Amino acid sequence: MSTADLHTLTGAYAAHALERDEREEFERHLAHCPACTQEVAEFTATLARLGSAEAVPVPDGLKLRVMASLDTVRQEPPLGPRPASGPARAGLRRTWPRFALAACLALAATSGGLAVQQHREAEQARARAAAIQQDQERITDLLTAPDARSTSTKVAGGSGVATVVWSHERNAAGFLASEMPPLAQGTTYQLWFADGATMRSAGLMASPTGALLLSGPLDGASGVGVTVEPAGGSLHPTGAPVLLLPVT
Q: Where is the Putative zinc-finger domain (predicted)?
C-alpha cells in the first residue's frame, strides 16, 4: 500500500474498522507521520463526542414506576390464534401482564446500563484522545527545538525501531516506537532516565507503537532505557533493560 493510500485510513483506524494487516501497516506509518497522528486523535475525539451525545442516562425512579404498574397496566394480547376461553384464559390474563412488564423492565435496565457504559467509555476515549493530542503537541515542540537531537535503534525480537529525541534547552525528551514486541498480559513497557547507575521512571507505554513525551525533566540524563514491568509500573527496574539509548 502506498503512503498516499495510508494517509486516507485515519478515520477507519480511529473507528477500529481496519483489517489486522491494514491496521499493523498503518500503525507502522503512524509512528513516523505526525499529520496522521494528529488526524487520528481528532477523529477519536469526534467519535467520543458522538457516542456521548447519544448516551441517555436512565431517568430517576424508572424502576419504581414500572414495578408499581405491574398489577394495573394491561398488555395487548399477541396476534395469532384466538386464546383459550374459561379458566385458562383468565389465568393467562392474570399472568401475561406481569411477564410482559418484567421483560420491559429488564430491557429498560439493560438499555440504561449500556447507556451508562457507553457514556463512561466515551469519556475515557475523550480523555485518551486529549492526552494523545497534548503529547503530540509537546513532541512537535520538542522536535522543533533549535538544539533537538535524536538517536534510534532496531528493536530486538522484531522489525520495529525505537527513537529517543531530546533537547537540553527544553530540558525534555520523547520516545517514539514502532512494532515493539507484544507483551504478556499483566505487563507493560516502562521508560527510565539513566542517571549513571541510577534509573528514574519516565512513564509507561500504553501500546507497543506510538509516541510518548517522557515524564520528568531530562536533567543531564546519560540515556533512556526501557524495561518490562508489571502492569502499573515499578518504582525501580525489576529486570535488565530491553533497550538503552544514549543521550549525549
A: 9-36
